[in-house]
Write a structure and sequence with these properties.
By secondary structure, the protein is of the alpha/beta class. The protein has 26 helices and nine strands. A five-stranded parallel beta sheet has the order 2-3-1-4-7, with helices on both faces. Helix 24 crosses helix 25. The longest helix is centred in the last third of the chain and has 24 residues. The structure holds a DNA duplex.
Length: about 525
DNA sequence: GGACGGTGAAACTTCAGGTTGCCTC
DNA sequence: GAAGTTTCACCGTCC
């Protein structure tokens, strides 16, 4: 149902006007925008114009401090979010640290945070309704075509967040922002009165189809080519695809590749997965990626293996895309790095004129990011140098771990046991973001990169040192409970009451004041 | 005269999200 | 294609 609302035109920014109107009504709003940067910038703009009422001030200030200090050292992003939260506004996207994301969601539900500017994450992952939903951007950048309209289905998903029945909202309001009159007409026609588009089968993407074919064979769900074809004929994909002969051609091409890569054996009409093929399928790897990893790992013999070898190897897979982008300024630096690591790189360098060269440079940069992470560079530096936010770091690290685990499993099957130790070490270092020297300490429960580093710098470098160390000193470094637990793990039990706690200086938390100066009027 | 800060226009960058594996306790 | 960020010249203020 369309409706006319009267909203005071206080500023040139309509989103801001709507927000102020919403607050006047004592309600909450979600603003959907198309990029992470926009979410942050819009939240900042709104927060500058909001007056917080006295009774919320203290709560918001406390919350703001919590947000600021979720990481060891606040990044630019933390500071930005903290400043917004102080005014009851927040931004929300996948780059946020999970703890901060939870804080934002929880406090919006409680009604403490009034406005959230978000990317579509919020509409999909979590159930966080609001009285008003403002869809600021209905266009989004997509690779080859530039800006294009988002699907109607997505628009409905966004607007579906409007209205909180549990808060006795009898209705919700969803508002789209248009720049021009013609855009307004288009929005009404396409989205408000338009129909949702057809749902497309995901099988249509070749890597998915490839993985699917292998898994059907590996699980012995099909054992002949005829089985395979009759299976696909029954799928939604085939129904959409229409022509069966064309589909058959694609599947034949996939079978041929799988055979060449040693993942299946084709005997006349019979299909059977090899041991390697079965494992690849279990690991959920795209067979193409698996083949690429095998080729790289086999080359390892003739190379000088370093951490960077494996990091670059996994960075050049489809699974890790999108990779970090290389700026014009960085070209020289990245090419220097290629030269520096030349004798260690496991993947083939494409020619400079190859379409893939750009992607190759990106893989080097992504590998450098991982490399900095395992050398204990903090989130702030990663954000500055690689433009990668804490939340995104986590996603990339998880993917990297999965690919390295898969490489490990492949090494076992193709008898490259010599590489296992290096990969396993690397996985631990990636998980913690720590240098090799901390590995012995990281084996202890409740010890991560921060505590391990503290201990190491105080000459407690391995389990033997932990045994020898004085419990009082250890307590001062990592706290009483942790110290006791660590001692217990190396076989020394202490009675809790016997441990003295010296009152040392607690490391101060960062305050917002310093950053507030920067805040514009 | 120089350090500093604010301002605004031009130049330059960048562009949503997230599922899979297996546990060492 | 467009929003956001960075950069840089310019100007005023203060010491």
């Amino acid at each position: 149902m369309q409706k006319t609302l009267k909203i005071k035109h206080l500023y040139d920014n309509n989103v801001l006007n709507i927000c102020l109107d919403t607050l006047e009504k004592n309600k909450q709003a979600l603003i959907f925008v198309n990029t992470k940067n926009s979410a942050e910038a819009e939240a900042e703009r709104i927060s500058r114009k909001i007056r917080v009422n006295e009774k919320d001030k203290k709560t918001l200030e406390e919350l703001s401090n919590k947000v600021l200090n979720t990481l060891d050292k606040p990044t630019k992003q933390c500071k930005r979010l903290a400043l917004c939260v102080k005014q009851g506004v927040a931004f929300h996207h996948a780059g946020l640290h999970s703890a901060q994301r939870e804080l934002v969601e929880e406090n919006f539900r409680k009604g403490i945070i009034k406005i959230i500017c978000a990317t579509p994450t919020l509409a999909y992952g979590v159930n966080l309704p609001a009285f008003r939903v403002v869809v600021r951007d209905l266009k989004r950048f997509s690779a080859p075509r530039g800006m294009s309209w988002i699907p109607v289905l997505e628009y409905q998903q966004l607007c579906g967040r409007a209205g909180r029945p549990d808060f006795n909202d009898k209705y919700g309001e969803a508002i789209c922002i248009s720049q021009t009159d013609s855009e307004k007409e288009k929005i009404i026609e396409n989205y408000i009165e338009g129909e949702t588009e057809e749902i497309l089968s995901k099988l249509a993407v070749e890597p998915v189809l490839r993985a699917y074919v292998l898994s059907l064979i590996a699980t012995e769900y099909v054992s002949t080519k005829n089985d395979l074809m009759s299976f696909f004929k029954k799928t939604f994909f085939a129904y959409q695809f229409g022509e069966i002969t064309k589909l058959e051609k694609i599947i034949n091409r996939i079978l041929k590749a799988l055979k060449e890569w040693g993942f299946i054996i084709i005997n006349k009409n019979d299909l059977q997965a090899t041991l390697l093929g079965t494992r690849v399928s279990q690991l959920y790897l795209d067979p193409y990626t698996a083949h690429y990893l095998i080729t790289c790992l086999k080359r390892a013999k003739s190379k000088i293996i370093k951490e960077f070898s494996f990091l670059q190897m996994i960075s050049y897979t489809i699974e890790l895309r999108p990779l970090l982008t290389v700026r014009v300024k960085e070209y020289d630096n990245i090419e220097e790095k290629i030269a520096e690591f030349q004798s260690s790189l496991l993947s083939f360098e494409p020619s400079m004129f190859d379409m893939d060269y750009e992607e190759y440079l990106k893989s080097i940069k992504t590998a450098l990011f991982f490399y900095d992470w395992i050398n204990e560079k903090d989130e702030e530096l990663l954000l500055d140098q690689y433009n990668i936010r804490p939340g995104e770091t986590r996603v990339k690290l998880e993917l990297a771990d999965w690919l390295l685990y898969s490489s490990e499993e492949i090494c076992k099957l193709i008898k490259l046991h010599g590489l296992l130790k290096e990969i396993q070490k690397l996985r631990i270092r990636l998980r913690y973001g720590a240098k090799e020297e901390l590995l012995p300490l990281l084996r202890l429960r409740t010890i991560g990169r921060v505590r391990a580093r503290k201990m190491y710098n105080n000459k407690i470098k391995n389990l033997e040192d932990v045994k020898k160390s004085d419990i009082t000193k250890l307590t001062q470094l990592i706290g009483k409970q942790t110290a006791l637990s660590v001692k217990k793990q190396v076989g020394q039990e202490y009675r809790e009451e016997k441990v003295k706690v010296k009152k040392g200086k607690r490391e101060g938390q960062t305050s917002l004041k310093k950053f507030e100066k920067k805040k514009k009027k």
